[in-house]
Amino acid sequence: MGFPEVTRLVRMRLLPLLLLQLLPLGTQCWARSPLRYDPTWESLDSRPLPSWFDKAKFGIFIHWGVFSVPSFGSEWFWWYWQKEKRPKFVDFMNNNYPPGFKYEDFAVLFKAKFFSASQWADVLQASGAKYIVLTSKHHEGFTLWGSQYSWNWNAVDEGPKRDIVQELAVAIRNNTDLRFGLYYSLFEWFHPLFLEDESSLFETQQFPISKTLPELYELVNRYQPDVLWSDGDGGAPDHYWNSTAFLAWLYNESPVRNTVVTNDRWGAGSICQHGGFYTCSDRYNPGHLLPHKWENCMTIDQFSWGYRREAEIGDYLTIEELVKQLVETVACGGNLLMNIGPTLDGTIPVIFEERLRQMGTWLKVNGEAIYETHPWRSQNDTTTPDVWYTSKPEKKIVYAIFLKWPISGKLFLGQPVGSLGETEVKLLGHGQPLTWTSSKPNGIIVELPHLSARQMPCKWGWTLALTNVT
Predict the structure, then answer these.
(1) How crowded is residue 328: how many other Cβ atoms within 10 Å of its Cβ?
(2) What single string gives the DSSP state of each residue in 375-398?
(3) Domain containing 189 — which CATH number?
(4) 387 three-state secondary structure
(5) How far is the C-alpha of 406 from the C-alpha of 353, rounded, in Å?
(6) Domain residues for 279?
(7) What sign does the dihedral 366-370-375-380 (CA atoms) show?
(8) Which of 214, 370, 455, 459 has its CA 20 to 30 A from that of 67?
(9) How many Cα atoms within 13 Å fall on the side-chain side of residue 282?
(10) pLDDT score recorded for residue 45
(11) What angle do CA 94, 98, 102 make, to 5 degrees?
(12) Distance, CA of 2 to CA of 467 (rounded, Å)
């Protein structure tokens, strides 16, 4: 069914019905239990972030959709081709597809015939991550579940003919210890109801009432995600999206009210201002401690969130660069959400799988310095570069994660102050206490063990556990 028919049906039959359905739902919710959070940012922002999220530290983002079929340039392919008409994208279509080919025609080719939710779960578990966030719907509007509000523009009616969200949710929950999360784009580039609302300067709310809000309720009630990662406000303010009322329901009445975490992308002006945790911008890494919990969402492919067939090896971050991103982010109080882009047939490209498994190997040794840690009084060492600190105050341990092994075999840490007879220094994965001496006026010098390449507990970064330092 095309968009004109969708518009006509919504106006004539579905919009009045949805209005009648949504209003009783809201009033019944408020009547059923005392209101804990009001539908205002002041009240919603007072909700404590569920503790699991800060403890987790590391998650995997998955961008997958119809854009994975052309797999060229970016997941913004449709916009760049049809709206901005960038020559690179126009030429790609002219050279590879017949005249008259529409973006909607890519959905038929999105078969996902090799998609195995259990295989994905195994790879994601091996990464050492503690949660995942799957794109349930990107700005193209195609839903990876059989939404009753998307007509045939979804993965159950088109392409895979499968409920991708359900399959992955089951595999993650049955086979891993990861928490399951969902990304959802509020707006859709070319949906006629959104474009009409936009033309009215968002004085009308046809699109959120008939599409966005029903789908959000459907997602939460059906799949019960522990992360609801909103995005794509389309320039519309939060009151157009009715974001605060939805979040009040999410926090007060939804089946995930005690566990769900949300981000800060709930309308123009809300980013880095309101929400459960802040993202502030894509690939946000401030390099210093922030007063509010935040997340660094970033990509292994430096130039795209979706899979690109034309990507070159130099476009992908190395494992050394990824470990550095993780360490810097956690030291400054953030979580790292590292993105991969599967192919149109549902496989995780080997370069992404390699990076995921490498990260998991590193975390098996150094995870003690990442998971359930807190920022220390100094986030990084101001004397020796590429040294970052985390801590577990309850155990009186400070972790010094260093990304370069000194040629001298001696590591100078300018921030910790040791006490003879009390301070102990260990290299994670090595076991034996290390010799250290005090440095004047501050800091300590640690004698690192003489190890061959085979004897090294890990690669790409190492951790010293410092007990009883100030």
Answers:
(1) 22
(2) EEEEEE-SSSTTEEEEEEGGGTEE
(3) 3.20.20.80
(4) strand
(5) 30
(6) 38-369
(7) positive
(8) 214
(9) 12
(10) 97
(11) 90
(12) 65
Average pLDDT over residues 283-311: 97
Is residue 280 domain-shared with residue 388, that is, in the same domain?
A: no
116 inside domain: yes
Average pLDDT over residues 177-186: 98
How far apart are the C-alpha atoms of 443 and 423, rounded to whole Å? Answer: 12
pLDDT at position 186: 98
- Tens of pLDDT, residue by residue over 68-118, are 999 999 999 999 999 999 999 999 999 999 999 999 999 999 999 999 999
Residues 405-445 pLDDT 10s? 999 999 999 999 999 999 999 999 998 999 999 987 889 99
Q: Which two tokens stand for residue 15?
A: 């919009």
Instruction: Look at the block and give the residue holding tokens 């002006």.
Output: 269
Same domain, 78 and 131: yes
> Contact, 74 vs 305, CB < 8 A?
yes
| Cβ count near 167 (within 10 Å) | 21
Q: Is 10 helix (H, G, I), strand (E, B) or coil?
A: helix
Q: At what angle do helices 213-223 and 164-175 cross, to 10 degrees?
A: 30
Backbone angles phi, psi at 378, to 5 degrees: -120, 130
- Is pLDDT at 27 greater than 50 in this prediction? no
Residue 31 has pLDDT above 50, yes or no: no
Given a cut of 60, whether residue 34 has pLDDT beyond it is no
User: How many Å apart are CA 308 and CA 340, to the nearest integer?
Assistant: 11
Mean pLDDT of the chain: 93
* Residues 265 and 279: beta-carbon distance below 8 Å: yes
CATH of the domain at 425: 2.60.40.1180
Tell me the CA distances in angstroms from 260 to 46, 50, 279, 450, one per residue in order: 15, 7, 16, 47
